Amino acid sequence: MKRTGWRSLVISSVLLVASAARAESRPRYGGTLRVAMSAAPASLEPAALAKSETGRDVARLLYETLVGMDSRGNVRPLVASAWEPELSGQRWRFQLRPGMTWHGGAPVTAESVAGALRSANSDWTVRAEAGAVVIENATPIPDLLADLTLPRYALIRRQGEKIAGTGPFAVQDWQPGRSLLLAANEGYWGGRPFLDAVRVDMGQNERQQMVAFELGKTDVIELSPDLAGRTQAKHVKSAPVELMALVFEREPATQAEADLRRAFALSLDRESLHRILLQGEGEIAGGLLPAWLTGYEFLFSSERNLQRARQLRAGLKPASPLRVSCEASDALAQLVVQRLALNAREAGIAVQVIPGASEADARLARLRVLSPDARVALRELSAMLNLPAPLIGRGSLEEIYRAEAAVIESGRVLPLLYRSQAFALGPEVRNWNEESLGEWRLSDVWIAGARP
């Protein structure tokens, strides 16, 4: 009898554990996801949010584009449910999802979408038709679908100072530069998110984020390369999607200046930057586009040649120090430029690091790869670097490589590193799905337990 009672108790305990495990893995509605970010945007305009990596991810919770694109370059429907080219690609027709609404309840009409696209690109002729939007250009637009996935084509509706999108979350409270509270979009076309809300605390530096995370006061924090390698918490990271590059403000004025920049480039120890400052995360950059995007990145030289750098420098007259700037609030950027200055000194080149300076010979840029389409990605990176538009032609890999090589050979840019975007996730965060490009997919994320 005692044996039977014990056996029943064991079976009951196993069933309870199994039931608890199933309940723990079963999605549930409710709860607030708490996110911390270092940037402190003063506006919710898509362009303002897109200036930082996490801000760009937050923007995607609020705003959508006509179409999206996955990391393999496959186009997927968003606000548009179908599309087709006409007139050999000079005109494109996009059928809109029926029954969609802007945040606040106003219907998404063809005219409201057309108006948003006209504001984004004045070169296009955009008109509304019954349930559809037509985009027309004087010449074919082969990159149109990839272009429409870029942040600047986020669809918004303006009402005075307020703007609304169609994303899975809507603004509930906004304190510029401090905090943002988003509420689940009950009428979202893709289905209501599991989360009730997302709270974003802005302007939080690395230490503040980590303290809040360890105290259980936030669920998602940004991870610097050293923390990503040391934290025991669950963390996720993207493919190498951020380019770190040194950009010169103008082309070399003389051959001597061009040779000095060449010597400077040869003095740089990218391997040390990657191993020490990035803790082995990401990749060394010889070109502008990462290897996962093109497959030919290895063709660009990134090796250090200190002997050749010294030879080039020895043949030049004494020169004023190269002035290199970076964001004054960016600790990683400051470490990178200081390391570059040490590398250059070994070749006899003087470099003056001036964080936050508006006038300098070169600046350290940190730029996100915006598209899995190599042609569009190269064009956008060149524009963000204030470099001339690359001549890509029809867009074959060979033509993209030649265009990228021409940009680098101009002496205006020195690619250094590709970084991954990384976040630490709290123990109650479930079903976090992130595209390899680092795009958040929070509609299916849920919070375990009963925390509000």
Structural account:
With 452 residues, the chain is α+β, with helices and mostly antiparallel strands. The chain has 3 domains: 28-62 and 167-219 and 426-452, Periplasmic binding protein-like II (D-Maltodextrin-Binding Protein, domain 2); 64-162, Periplasmic binding protein-like II (D-Maltodextrin-Binding Protein, domain 2, 3-Layer(aba) Sandwich); 239-421, Dipeptide-binding Protein, Domain 3 (Dipeptide-binding Protein, domain 3). The chain contains 14 helices and 23 strands. The chain has helices at 2-25, 46-49, 53-62, 110-120, 144-147, 206-214, 225-230, 255-267, 270-277, 291-294, 306-314, 331-346, 374-384, 397-409, and strands spanning 32-36, 67-69, 75-77, 80-86, 91-96, 125-129, 132-136, 157-159, 162-164, 169-175, 179-184, 197-201, 220-222, 235-248, 283-284, 322-325, 351-353, 362-368, 413-425, 429-430, 433-434, 440-441, 446-447. Strands 13, 14, 15, 16, 17, 18 and 19 form a 7-stranded mixed sheet that branches. A 4-stranded mixed sheet has the order 1-12-11-10, with no helix packed on it. A hairpin with a 5-residue loop joins strand 21 (433-434) and strand 22. The chain is globular. Mean pLDDT is 88; it is low at 1-23.
- Any low-confidence stretches, pLDDT <50, length ≥5? 1-23
- Our count of helices gives 14
Q: What is the fold named in CATH at topology level of the largest domain?
A: Dipeptide-binding Protein, domain 3
Summed up, the domain count is 3
Distance between the termini: 46 Å
What is the number of strand segments?
A: 23
Tell me the β content.
Answer: 15-25%
CA gyration radius, whole angstroms: 25 Å
CATH architecture of the largest domain: Roll
Query: What structural class should be given to the helix and strand makeup?
Result: alpha+beta
Give the overall silhouette.
Answer: globular
Helix content: 25-40%
Question: What would CATH call the homologous superfamily of the largest domain?
Answer: Dipeptide-binding Protein, Domain 3
Arithmetic mean of pLDDT: 88
Largest sheet: 7 strands, mixed
